[in-house]
Amino acid sequence: VPQGPPSISTDTCTGISEAFKADSHPEKILLGAGAYRDDQGKPYVLPSVKAAELQFVNSGLDKEYAAITGVADFVKAATKLAYGADSAPLKSGSISATQSISGTGALRIGGAFLERFYPGTKKIYIPTPSWANHGAIFEDSGLEVGKYRYYNKDTIGLDFQGMVEDIKTIPKGSIVLLHACAHNPTGIDPTKEQWKEISKAVKEGEHQVFFDMAYQGFASGDTDADAFALRQFIKDGHKPILAQSFAKNMGLYGERAGAFSVVCESAEEKANVDSQIKILVRPMYSNPPIHGARIAAEVLTNPALNKQWLGEVKGMADRIIKMRALLQDNLEKLGSKRDWSHITSQIGMFAYTGLTPEQVATLAKEHSVYCTKDGRISVAGITSGNVKRLAESIYKVTG
Ligand code: PLP
Fold first, then answer.
1. Which residues pair with 98 in a beta bridge?
2. Those residues with Cβ within 8 angstroms of residue 111's Cβ, 6 or more apart along the chain or in another chain
3. For labelling, which of 107, 330, 334, 353 has a CA lying 20 to 30 Å from the CA of 307?
4. Is the pLDDT of residue 186 over 90?
5. Do residues 243 and 347 share a domain?
6. What residues contact 365, with CB distance under 8 A and at least 6 apart?
C-alpha cells in the first residue's frame, strides 16, 4: 500500500489546530474548528442535553442493538423537526427515513443510494466552495462530482446569477447538492426570494435535489426559519433527499446522531426505499449508535426539554451574531477603510473574511491568530475577551 497524501495540512482545521497547539503565545486565538465554544472559549454541553442524558441514564435502559434504521423515536422526531409537523409528505407517510452516523453518514448513505438507484446522470453538483468533505464522500460513493458557482469573491457574497445559470445548464436530470442553511464555508445563504428562483431552476433542469442540513437552528436561532429552503422545495413539488446532523444544534458532535431521508412519490414507494436502505446499511455498519439518538429523541419529544433546547439553540446563534457585530465594530473603530459588512450579513458558524492566503499566513506568524488558508474564520472561536485583539490583528494585516 503506497503512503497517501497527508490528510493533515496547514489549510485544514486539524492542521491549524496542530500549529495552534505548538504556539506558546499566551493570547493565541484559534478560529478553525466548526464546533461551538462558549464566551470563555470552552466546549459547551447544552443543559437540555445533559438533563435528557441524566434522565435516561438513571432509568436503567439497556444497551441492546438498535434496528438497522436506528432508534425509531429519534428518526420520527428528526424528520418532524426538518419537514415540519404539518408537512404533506410526512402526513401521508411517504418519507423514508433512517438514523445515520451523524451528517457525514447521512451524506454517505445518500451517495450510495443514488449510485445504486438514481435513474439519471450519476453526477452530483456541489457549490464552489463547499464543505471540504463533500467531494470525497460522493466520489467514494461512486458518483461523479461536478461544481456550480456559488461564491463571488469580488462582492464577498453570493454569485446568485452564476449559480442559477449553472443549475440551468448542467445536464438534465443531474443531482444538485444544496446547503439548507448556514453555508459552510462561506456563511452566505440565498434569500427567501432567491431560494424560490433556485427551486425553479432545479425544476427546469429536472434535477434531483439533495439538501445537506447540518446547522438547523444554528443560522437564525429558529429551527423552522432555517428549514425554509427544504420546505419551499417540497411546496414546489420537489422530492428532496435530506441529510441531517445533530452535531451542531445539540452539541452532540462525538455522539454521531444524524438522519437520512428520502421524500418518495407514495407510501408504496417509501416501503420500497425503506427496504433498500436497510440492504445498504446492513453491510456498512449493521446499525447505528444509540446513545446520542436517545438523547436527541428525548430533547425533541419532551415538551419542557424541547422548549429549553430551542432557547439554548437561540442562545448559541445569538452569541455568534453578537461576536460578528463586535468584530465588525472593532474593525471600524480602528479606522479600517475596508467594508466589513459581510461579517454581519453572513450567518452561521463561519465567516468568509476575504483575507488572502498571505494575510492568513501573516496572521498566524505575527499575531498567533489561526484560521484556514481560504480566510474562513469560525465565529464560535471569538469571545468578548479576544475580539479586540483579533480585530487589531486583522486590521494590521489588511491595512
Ligand atoms: N455538512 C456540512 C456542511 C458540515 O459543515 C458538516 C460538519 O462540519 C457536516 C455536514 C457533517 O457533520 P457531522 O458528520 O459531524 O454531523
1. 260
2. 124, 137, 138, 140, 141, 142, 143
3. 107
4. yes
5. no
6. none
Domain that includes residue 72, residue range: 65-301
pLDDT at position 183 is 96
Interatomic CA distance for residues 340 and 123, integer angstroms? 37
Nearest C-alpha neighbor of 90 from the set 262, 276, 246: 262
Give the model's confidence band at 7: pLDDT under 50 very low, under 70 low, under 90 confident, else very high.
low
| CA distance linking residue 362 with residue 393, whole number of Å | 9
Residue 274, domain member (yes or no): yes
| Claim to verify: residue 107 and residue 237 sit in the same structural domain | yes
pLDDT of 11 reads 54
For residue 355, what is its C-alpha cell?
A: 483575507
Q: Identify whether residues 367 and 289 lie together within a single domain.
A: no
> Is 5 a member of any domain?
no
Q: Is the pLDDT of residue 62 over 90?
A: yes
Report pLDDT for 12: 67
Q: For 336-366, write each residue's pLDDT tens digit.
A: 999 999 999 999 999 999 999 999 999 999 9
- Domain at 223, CATH number: 3.40.640.10
236 and 115 share one domain: yes
Assess whether pLDDT exceeds 80 at residue 13. Answer: no
Residues 133 and 80 in one domain: yes
Atom 12 of ligand 1, nearest CA residue: 103
Distance 394 CA to ligand 1 centre (A): 27
**What is the pLDDT, as a whole number, of residue 120?**
84
Read off the pLDDT of residues 198-216 as tens digits, 9 standing for 90 and up. 999 999 999 999 999 999 9
- pLDDT over 80 at 103, yes or no: yes
| Domain containing residue 30: CATH number | 3.90.1150.10
What is the CB < 6 Å shell around ligand 1? 34, 102-104, 131, 179, 184, 212, 214, 245, 247, 253, 258
Q: From the CA of 213, how far away is ligand 1's center (Å)?
A: 8
User: 241-245 and 208-213: which strand pairing?
Assistant: parallel
